[in-house]
Specification:
The chain is mostly helical. The chain is 48% helix and 6% strand. Helix 2 packs across helix 3 (28-43), helix 3 runs parallel beside helix 5 and helix 7 packs across helix 8 (110-120).
Length: 265
């Protein structure tokens, strides 16, 4: 599905070359099914016969026999060439219309191509590299919440590698569905970019020296659990409590503890 959406502009141009009417006259549900089929044919390693067969069967179930025949006819035309061959046929020559050429080849709206190109200050290689990178499947960055999950556990996921900067980060290099990760489903890990993780670490490890008072004093909770040993994150895990303090508020240790834990969930 994601691949179909990323390449929708390109696939629409290819489908338009295979039908005998403007795309606006093709029912949207039919176009949706065709997009899925074209992606299987041109954007995956699925054998052509399997891609056509599966998509036609889908069309038969959700659209009916008549529309399934139309889908079958279009996909068989698409299957006659690969993606590069189709791009040579449907994309305007670069020398004649560079923006439209890039829009079709890289599946971006023409106005987006124009705006990005202007921001780069011209040059073909730069804009082509940018558009190609924009079509890459994005990575997903997870955070192992201290005391609740570990990076070792998250690194057991498919295509997982350690983060570049945060000691609690793991990157899923092929993207995917974070909800499929057990630790994420259980709330022990989450999606959080490394910059946000580093901000939380920097705040948690900031020195707390300074005067008390100014209306911030409060009696310690006599029912509070024993304090944690060492700095945040505590080695004692989620059952460990922050050190008692005579100060409360956003800049005191208890206040900061609550704020930081809330931002790493």
């Amino acid at each position: 599905m994601y691949g179909t959406l990323r390449r929708q502009g390109t696939y629409d141009a290819i489908v338009a070359a295979c039908v005998d009417r403007p795309l606006r006259e093709v029912d949207p549900p039919v176009l949706d099914v065709l997009g899925l089929g074209v992606h299987q044919l041109l954007g995956t390693r699925i054998p052509s016969h399997a891609a056509v067969s599966a998509t036609v069967e889908l069309a038969r179930v959700v659209l009916g026999d008549g529309r399934a025949k139309f889908v079958n006819a279009v996909l068989r035309k698409v299957a006659q060439d690969d993606l590069d061959g189709w791009l040579e046929r449907v994309a305007p020559p670069y020398d004649e219309d560079p923006e439209d050429h890039l829009a079709v080849v890289h599946s971006h709206p023409r106005w987006v191509v124009s705006a990005l190109w202007d921001s780069l200050g011209g040059g073909r290689s730069g804009i082509e590299d940018l558009l190609a990178a924009d079509n890459e499947r994005p990575e997903v960055t997870l955070v192992a919440r201290p005391g609740r999950a570990t990076t070792t556990e998250l690194l057991g996921e498919e295509a997982a590698v350690p983060g570049r900067w945060s000691p609690y980060a793991v990157r899923l290099t092929e993207g995917g569905e974070p909800g499929a990760v057990a630790a994420v489903r259980e709330g022990r890990a989450g999606v959080q970019d490394e910059g946000s993780q580093l901000v939380a670490l920097a705040l948690a490890n900031a020195p707390l020296d300074g005067p008390t008072g100014g209306g911030w004093t409060a009696a310690p909770d006599p029912a509070a659990r024993p304090p944690c040993s060492g700095r945040w994150p505590p080695s004692g895990g989620p059952s460990c409590s922050p050190p008692r303090s005579s100060r409360t508020g956003p800049d005191s240790w208890p206040g900061r503890w609550t704020a930081i834990r809330g931002r790493t969930r």
